[in-house]
Specification:
heterodimer, A: mainly beta, 6-stranded mixed β-sheet, 5-stranded antiparallel β-sheet, about 0% helix, B: mainly beta, 7-stranded mixed β-sheet, 4-stranded antiparallel β-sheet, 11 strands
Chain lengths: ~110, ~110
């Protein structure tokens, strides 16, 4: 059974720093992995989708990597800003078509 | 710009009332999903639909039903609301075919059952 883990559950970093958020999964037989951002009381906003054949995707200051063999994905945020404060979730799509979400990392950027 | 619209952002209902949560997407997506999100429990799948008139139970379907009469609209129904259904409800959609599969979410509906 696929399990998706995001550690740490919460993270505070000073503004301007580069940071890495982690997502690990137990079954490497996936179709893709997607990163989301969620602001308090809102829905999830899609940030990046990585297909299983890809190793990374980039969008602006965000870069997501995927290493299926080790069951890991990272979301790299460059030059963090207070507006990046949010909860970041990863989700894995299994080959049985189930989507498994992590519980998220709550990120706080200190001004 | 892609859009998933949930009809109500905030609802307050009384125990025993029938509740309708509506979700509309404008991306011609085949697949639609209803989740609930609770602190400490994460997102849990209630029901999903792979096409019009189709529906499948997710992980926690008890106390809920759904309707998909048109491709763009997926409704979640609470036949008789209970206090343990107080939650944030999230609708999502994606194109059919798992090779693409980017998931898009609505803004969420916060339901309080008194």
């Amino acid at each position: 059974k696929q399990e998706v883990t995001q550690i740490p559950a919460a993270l505070s970093v000073p503004e301007g720093e580069n940071l890495v958020l982690n997502c690990s999964f137990t079954d490497s037989a996936i179709y893709n992995l997607q990163w989301f951002r969620q602001d308090p009381g809102k829905g999830l906003t899609s940030l990046l989708l990585i297909q299983s054949s890809q190793r990374e995707q980039t969008s602006g200051r965000l870069n997501a990597s995927l290493d299926k063999s080790s069951g890991r994905s990272t979301l790299y945020i460059a030059a963090s800003q207070p507006g990046d404060s949010a909860t970041y979730l990863c989700a894995v799509m299994n080959r049985d078509d189930k989507i498994i979400f992590g519980k998220g990392t709550r990120l706080h950027i200190l001004p | 710009d892609v859009k998933v619209t949930q009809s109500s952002r905030y609802l307050v209902k009384r125990t025993g009332e029938k509740v309708f949560l509506e979700c509309v997407q404008d991306m011609d997506h085949e697949n639609m999903f209803w989740y609930r999100q609770d602190p400490g429990l994460g997102l849990r799948l209630i029901y999903f639909s792979y096409d019009v008139k189709m529906k499948e139970k997710g992980d926690i379907p008890e106390g809920y039903s759904v309707s998909r009469e048109k491709k763009e609209r997926f409704s979640l129904i609470l036949e008789s609301a209970s206090t343990n259904q107080t939650s944030m409800y999230l609708c999502a959609s994606r194109t059919g075919g798992v090779s693409t599969g980017e998931l898009f979410f609505g803004e969420g509906s916060r339901l309080t059952v008194l």
